[in-house]
Amino acid sequence: MERKRNNVQHKDLREWLKAIDAIGELKIIEGADRDEDIGPIVSMLAPSYTSPAILFDNIKGYPQGYRVLANSLNSYRRIGFTLGLSLDLKPFELSSRLLGLIENINLIPPKFVEKGPVMENILTGKDVNVLKFPTPKWHENDGGRYIGTGTFDIIKDPDSNWVNLGTYRVMLFEEPTRVGFYITPGKHGYIIRGKYFSLNKPCPVAAVVGGDPLLFLVTSTEIPSGVCEYDWAGGLRGRAYEVFEGKITGLPLPADAEIILEGFSQPEVRHPEGPFGEWPGYYGGGIEEEPVIDVKAIYHRNDPIILGVPPQCPPDEQARFRAVFRSALLKKEMENAGIPGVIECWCHEVGGTRLLLAVSIKQSYLGQARQAGHVASQCRAGAYAGRYVVVVDDDIDVTDLNEVVWAMCTRSDPETSIDIIKRAWSSRIDPMVSPEDRIKGRFSNSRAIIDATRPWEWKDAFPKVNAPSRELLAKTKEKWGFLLK
After folding, report:
1. How far are the Cα atoms of 2, 21, 30, 270, 376 from residue 383, in angstroms, in the given order?
2. Which of 374, 389, 304 is nearest to 339 (CA)?
3. What's this model's pTM, rounded to 2 decimal places?
4. CATH number of the domain to which 234 belongs
């Protein structure tokens, strides 16, 4: 694939904000209430992918300058800017350009420095207080306030030098030195944390609240095991991230972050966590005893900014940026698995980018469609908490739900075109996990692979489509497109 030039302009969240403001995509709201206003405003904006980023300042009960940024990446224009790409690319074009970058990525490890902006304030001992920041209650029925929605957590594998950055939710309690630390089973952070716990050792961890939006995007995506997200994101932007050695854990911490909580997760310490409105659009999990982080140090900039990315009923902010990333990674992983003829992949926003995947192929042999569907459902980018995979012919635009559902309705037969995979990897936030299975900890589900391609054996005899070809339609739109305006 042709090498695509990247042009990431920002260094950190503050430079990103200045640039977004300059293109007219930022609004500032003053005087909002932490619990009554911020969450509902973000929920109101979530359905619209043209809504602005919102910076809440002068929040009731907190010093001016202690801010919350929300709805930041709920725009394909802002996603494009964050990736160093054009502001005017359509979602699939963004994903395709990103895939070009991924195909040619050169990993760039972080660079250690002695000082950074996040070290303007260092709180330890009796000064540690995670409650000093204006953390909102994001959803009406949440069990508490979550400082960790737009965070990423840093953890290091005890058996290697692999440093993993992953986006896991972090809940506030009434205790100023302790936060919740929920990770879905099977995630890299869960596996690494489990290694410490199995040795009865505390797990060093740091939660970064308000990092570079590009680095946050990468930490929210299924990067291959053993690859450090610092290196991967550094490769995307073309320069190393500056990090410093954490005073408590020794972990590499981003020098340009807004807020960092550093400490340890103890094997035997649990605290009730949840409920929290999650990405499928439900409270799929209730209140469970989960590990915590005992915070030993807080680093924060003057006038710190919390980056909030709370999940909403999809399609929402998370679904939009994850669709761009996950679709590119899905195509790459399918090609790496040796599936020929993969034309396009799209992880649909309405399914939270997990529950509905569409793959188009150019058929060249019997069984290819089933092979493509099964691999898509079980590779790293598609395996977690999926539901449906629809495989279509190359004349279908996989980003267009109308075309995908039309193909499914007219080119598949319920009896012969659907394969079911049982006991697949799911999560406690899956709303279809029964109460009985929740009690027993059985968080699995089934997958439907829907072959919506023309049957190979008689595809040449399949009825012709009555629509114009893509080429003719493009010419018609060029000549007569004014009629659509």
Report:
1. 29, 37, 42, 28, 8
2. 374
3. 0.90
4. 2.30.110.10
Q: What is the pLDDT of residues 333-363, one digit of tens each?
A: 999 999 999 999 999 999 999 999 999 999 9
Name the token pair of 470.
């893509």
pLDDT at 72 over 70: yes
Report whether 37 contacts 138 (CB < 8 A): no
Helix ranges, 1-89 (H): 13-22, 38-45, 76-82
Task: Locate all alpha helices (DSSP H) within 181-316, ordered by sequence.
Answer: 188-198, 213-219, 229-237
CB 241 within 8 A of CB 234: yes
The answer to whether residues 434 and 324 belong to one domain is yes
Q: Which residues sit opposite 463 in a β-bridge?
A: none
pLDDT over 70, % of the chain: 99
- Residue 366 sits at the vertex; the CA angle it makes with 363 and 367, to the nearest 5 degrees, is 95
Q: Is residue 271 packed enough to be buried (19+ CB in 10 Å), middle (13-18) or exposed (0-12)? A: middle
| Number of helices and strands in the chain (H, E) | 13, 22
Does residue 289 sit in the same domain as residue 339?
no
Alpha carbon distance 16, 19 (integer Å): 5
Q: DSSP label at 64?
A: T
Domain around 383: 317-484
Per-residue DSSP letter, 327: H
Q: Is the pLDDT of residue 400 over 60?
A: yes
For residue 2, is pLDDT > 50?
Answer: no
Query: What pLDDT is attached to residue 6?
Result: 64
